[in-house]
Amino acid sequence: MAKTLFEKIWDRHVVKTIDGGPSVLYIDKHFIHEVTSPQAFKGLEKRGLPVFRPRQIVATADHNVPTVDQHLPIKEELSRIQVQQLLDNCKKNGIELYGLGHPYQGIVHVIGPELGITQPGMTMVCGDSHTSTHGAFGAIAFGIGTSEVEMVMATQCLLQSKPKLMRINVDGKLNKGVVSKDIILYIIAQISASGATGYFVEYAGSAIRDLSMEARMTICNMSIEMGARGGMIAPDETTFAYIKGRQFAPAGIAWDQALAKWKQLYSDKDAHFDKEIHIDAATIEPMITYGTNPGMGMSVSGHIPAENEIDEKEKPSYLKSLAYMGLEAGSAIKGHPVDYVFIGSCTNSRIEDLRMVASFVKGRKKADNVQVWIVPGSKQVEKQAIEEGIDKVFEEAGFHLRQPGCSACLGMNEDKIPAGKYCISTSNRNFEGRQGPNARTLLASPLTAAVAAITGEVADVREYL
Q1: What pTM value is reported for the model?
Q2: Coil, helix or strand for 404?
Q3: Are 423 and 325 in the same domain?
Q4: Which residues lie across from 168 on neighbouring strands?
Q5: What does the DSSP assignment read for 115-138?
Q6: What whole-number distance in Å separates Cα of residue 430 and Cα of residue 183?
Q7: Residues 6+ apart with CB under 8 A from 139
Q8: How many structural domains does the chain have?
Q9: CA dihedral for 441, 446, 452, 453, sign (positive or negative)
């Protein structure tokens, strides 16, 4: 019987299926961080339960950490308490922790792949919705709630209902100035922020296969922004080349054995998907959001939809979004002034993203009206950027390379956008207050963010390439 990539992995990990109910799914790798783990550890302690398989858990501090002066005590009290609790809990339970000061510290969805922990065919979870990032390697990866974090800690299993399956095919060649962030923003704008609710998505097609692993991670990362349970891409030679030689990747005979298994991970020709979507890569332009959910996206050269173009049931949220963002229906977004540019987050903070920005801004200076925050996704990315001289390119352009963390993606730490200010962000969410109370977020690619930093306004990068 023909199977999808998802079904091949799912079936190998089902411990038991409950009649008329969910399945007991075995979890290969569990990532934890300082925000969603303290309550889970406390729950285990109350029940007198040990962590069942601590060797299958990897911890890091990322959400609440400062991105300057990380060698100093954390100033913000809640952040300081959470990071200390993570340290104490990991030490008590024998869990590997990449905390502040560790050479492997960084955003959980950046360090997993770069260390070779993330591998094809795995089931992977974390108390963070953007765990879908790891699906770029041909893994079933998804975010879980705090009670589920506790469940996995106690049993290494999870109760899960099998989702419906969707395949999104992107074929053809991308145009100049269009990168993976534009692909996923385009898809979400086409199907809406709830268009994949109830589905697990597989991305396929020639345009997807042509992407680097970093670019594939960006796409899978934002699967959750269209309501999907997760996203995945079948592993191929690009995947295998990326993993080989990394710190925790198989080596020697183990590599040959793993590779043989990984090469079987693809959707069979006659496999059934509950829904299929086909997109011509040539129709995608540099994208940007204008509203307060990631589905409110448009080409940077286009116009914000007029009121009569919006479905009646969507109008209240549309009008509320425009009021919050201070934008007018039917107007162009190109040329709109920008106050902040944030390049970072688990969506776009890898070395490829920083190289992309550096190659564009080299020899240019930032606009006087813009503050630019460049936040690497990990200590390894930071180290590589310094070794390659990328930090010097940023410095000469008036940018500053900060230290690793989630930073201004979610406004839980010290990096917040001031009220009323506009920020072009390479992160994944533009909800009201996401980057700070009353901050206004426009999601875009690293290239579109870079050109805004130089011009001081929303601009079409194609005009500068």
Answers
A1: 0.97
A2: coil
A3: yes
A4: 203, 277
A5: TT---TT-EEEESSGGGGGGGGGS
A6: 17
A7: 9, 118, 119, 120, 121, 122, 123, 124, 232
A8: 2
A9: positive
- The answer to whether position 190 is within a domain reads no
Give the relative orientation of helices 390-397 and 351-361 as an angle to the nearest 10 degrees. Answer: 40
Residue 411, pLDDT > 90, answer: no
Query: What are the Cα distances from residue 364, in Å, to 74, 249, 382, 396, 398?
Result: 34, 39, 22, 8, 9
- Residues 291-298 have a mean pLDDT of 98
3-state helix, strand, coil in the chain (%, to 5): 40, 20, 45
Tell how far CA 406 is from the center of its chain.
Answer: 10
- C-alpha dist (Å) from residue 301 to 141, 298, 451: 35, 8, 14
Single out the residue of 274, 2, 6 nearest to residue 140, CA to CA.
6
Residues 308, 428 within the same domain: yes
> How far apart are alpha carbons 351 and 380 in whole angstroms?
9
How many angstroms separate the CA atoms of 19 and 258, rounded?
A: 33
Cα of first residue to Cα of last residue in the chain, in angstroms, is 49
Q: Using CA atoms, how far apart are residues 436 and 141, in angstroms rounded to an integer?
A: 28
Looking at the domain assignment, is residue 278 inside a domain? no
* Mean of pLDDT values over 243-270: 98
Supply the mean pLDDT for the chain. 97
Kindly write down the DSSP assignment for every residue of 133-185, as one continuous string.
GGGGGS-EEEE--HHHHHHHHHHSEEEEPPPEEEEEEEES-PPTT--HHHHHH
Q: Where are the alpha helices (DSSP H) in 362-433?
A: 379-387, 390-397
Query: Does the residue 397 lie in any domain?
Result: yes
Segment 11-22 shows an average pLDDT of 94
Q: Do both 342 and 434 map to the same domain?
A: yes
Helix (H, G, I), strand (E, B) or coil at 347: coil
Residue with tokens 């899960």: 160
Examine the domain organization and report whether 369 and 436 are in the same domain: yes
Q: How many CB atoms lie within 10 A of CB 365?
A: 12
User: Does residue 128 lie in a domain region?
Assistant: yes
pLDDT tier for residue 360 given thresholds of 50, 70 and 90: very high
242 shares its domain with 348: no
Token pair belonging to 82: 């959470």
Contact by Cβ (8 Å): 459, 171: no
What per-residue confidence (pLDDT) applies to 414?
Answer: 87
**How far is Cα 155 from Cα 290, in angstroms, rounded to an integer?**
43
What is the extent of the structural domain holding 227? Answer: 5-164+212-263
DSSP state of 263: T
CATH of the domain at 345: 3.30.499.10
